[in-house]
Amino acid sequence: MVGGGGVSGTGGHIGGARKTDRRPIVSGHGFGAALHRWPIAILIFVLAVLRVGVLGRTLSASFNPVDFSMYYCAGLTLRHGENPYRTEMAPLAKRLGLEKGYTVQTNDPPSFLLAFEPLTLLSPHQAYWAWQAVSAAAFAASLFLLLWPGYSGLGGPMALALAGFAILFPPVGNNFVIAQSKMLVLLPLVAMMRFMERKRDGLAGLMLAVAVLLRVFPLLLGGYLVLTRRWRVLGYTIAATLAGAIVTMAIMGVGTSLSFFTAVGSLSSERWLSTTSNISLMAFVSRIVWSLFGSAPGPLVEFVRRASVISVDLVVMYLVVRATLSAGRDDREWRVFSLWIVASVMLSPTAWFHYLLLMLIPFVQMACAANRGAVRSRTLWMAVGCYLAIGLTSDVLRLLSQHPQLIEKFREAESVSLLIAFVAVYWFAVDLPDRPLSTKA
């Protein structure tokens, strides 16, 4: 997703020729100029709407609850006064007709299960469509906050075109196909960013607290607040998170709530780390170590794996902290904020393809900056390459659906896409252009 043309940071001669103002035929500038035209923007958005129609028809053609099954079974177990973290879900799922979904064991945060519980007052089918409606509303609100010209500074055609690209982004469709919950993380993080723009520190902190209570991994953004010295936002985040946790324990019970930590501990087991669907940095590095040492277990291999994971995690955090300290409190275009979002996904014990939905925040911020000529060329094209790589990976995996072994091997491309996203957003955070250029048509 790009806005206008990027700015090359070199400004030198190419192939010994004298520097000129000529632009290449295929360039970010040309692409960005095209997106400022209403006919092209409308075409892109219409294609996105057609894609939504196809997706809706596919979902309605056959009831495929997938991750919703776990949410519903865990929420119903909780409503019946039982501990969802210590209850086998498969028998309940079979009685409810949800056995085709994911029903192994819940590891969702207590506050999320408590928030989901009211949907279990509906039948599974009714609750499924209510859940999809909630996700769709959250996504629509996220796009509005990200792209509305009054917030983003984009022109109408550009905002509409980028909305179309966002809808076509494969992780968006994947969230609906498997009935996932990441739309409810995207919305509070976007709202947090907009509230910080307007110095509404209390509401910004509340939004981060909501994201943390629902999914935990956005907790890493607390580091962003510390290093950028946004103390009021941090204080409100801590207070709201503690209040939410206390309310959750008061309703669910302390024992049931604390059982979550036992369940979530299993996410770092070999069972979860070895699957190529897990795109977290811990899982990706672990699989590399296991592939190098073969299948032979042992304390030496485990030591190497743990040391490798810690080393790579420290490198990522060093780069993130370095970029943050360089930017200081003045986080222009939310470059560093975007970097912390990518890092929170990478450093989570588990992350899946649908987590890449959160890349919409840095992608849109890069597009807005590019529209003002405030992005270097390498950053711009790395972001475009990441968007296309994610889409291509999704298409190839769909073509390989009848070949499970090939899918397992090729799925590593999803982890590589996340690494590409990190590089693009890191460059976005630290690689400012020498001078701004207007690229608006």
Layout of helices and strands, plus pairs?
Layout: H1 28-35, H2 38-61, H3 67-79, H4 90-96, H5 110-116, H6 124-147, H7 149-152, H8 156-168, H9 170-177, H10 183-197, H11 201-215, H12 221-227, H13 231-252, H14 254-265, H15 270-273, H16 281-293, H17 299-327, H18 335-346, H19 360-371, H20 377-399, H21 404-410, H22 412-430
Which features would summarize this protein structure in a list?
441 residues, mainly alpha, 22 helices, 0% strand, disordered C terminus
Q: Spans of 5+ residues with little confidence (pLDDT < 50)? A: 2-26, 435-441
Which class of secondary structure composition applies to the elements? mainly alpha
Basic shape: globular
Radius of gyration: 22 Å
Q: Average pLDDT across residues?
A: 88
Give the termini distance in whole angstroms.
17 Å
Question: What's the total number of strands?
Answer: 0
**What about the largest sheet?**
none
- What is the helix fraction of residues, given as a range? 55-70%
Number of helices: 22
Beta percentage is: under 5%
Q: What order do the SSEs take from the amino end to the carboxyl end, as H and E?
A: HHHHHHHHHHHHHHHHHHHHHH
In short:
By secondary structure, the protein is mostly helical. The protein contains 22 helices and no strands. The protein has a domain at 269-441.
Protein model, in words:
With 441 residues, the protein is mainly α. The protein has a domain at 269-441. The protein is 68% helix and 0% strand. It contains 22 helices and no strands. Helix 16 runs antiparallel to helix 17. The longest helix has 29 residues, at 299-327. The two termini are 17 Å apart.
